[in-house]
Amino acid sequence: MVTVKYYDSPLGLIFLAADDTGLIGLWFEGQKYFAQTLTRNYQTGSTPILESAVRWLRVYFAGEKPSFTPRLHLIGTDCQIAVWKRLLAIPYGTTATYGEIGKQVAAERTGFRPSPQAVGGMVSQNPISIIIPSHRVVPANGSLTGYAGGVIQRARLLMLEKTDMKPLLIPPSLSALLPLEAA
């Protein structure tokens, strides 16, 4: 049985879903691909897996690097899962490009040579936002486009991690919207 709950983060409501194996989803309310891995059979409540995810989020939104990862249950194609697992290796406070992720996954998987665009598609469908840090993957030109949670959320997450934002392309119209509100 899948259990769901909401977490009220400094960036807005986050919807969490877990089954008996692990966390299957973590989405910003209304983001692209919202709840795509969620079945129709679910209940609202809490489980040890959901509470572990909430603890992780509390540490993260306090501006600290969590020292643990909640148990995850990735649901996707073999290629998607390989890319999502690779995202877990991107260090806190840094970024990687879609091309770099593709090359790293290709080095680990025989016969898998995804283009940066294919990697981008798989990254954008990451069902466990933030914990699997798709916000840390940017195009080679440093633009902040393409994040399922939105450009502002991506920038705020990177700023929370104290990522060097100088090499990234932030549209001037967004600059005033970026400071993260105090939790």
Features:
single chain, alpha/beta, MethylDNA_cys_MeTrfase_DNA-bd, 6 helices, DNA damage, Arc Repressor Mutant, subunit A, 183 residues, two-stranded parallel ribbon, Double Stranded RNA Binding Domain, Methylated-DNA--protein-cysteine methyltransferase
Describe this structure in words.
The chain has 183 residues and is an alpha/beta fold. It has 2 domains: 2-61, Double Stranded RNA Binding Domain (2-Layer Sandwich), CATH 3.30.160; 78-175, Arc Repressor Mutant, subunit A. The chain is 32% helix and 15% strand. The chain contains 6 helices and 6 strands; from the N terminus they run ββββααβααβαα. Strands 3-2-1-4 form a 4-stranded mixed sheet, with helices on one face. A two-stranded parallel sheet has the order 5-6. Helix 2 packs across helix 3 and helix 3 packs across helix 4.
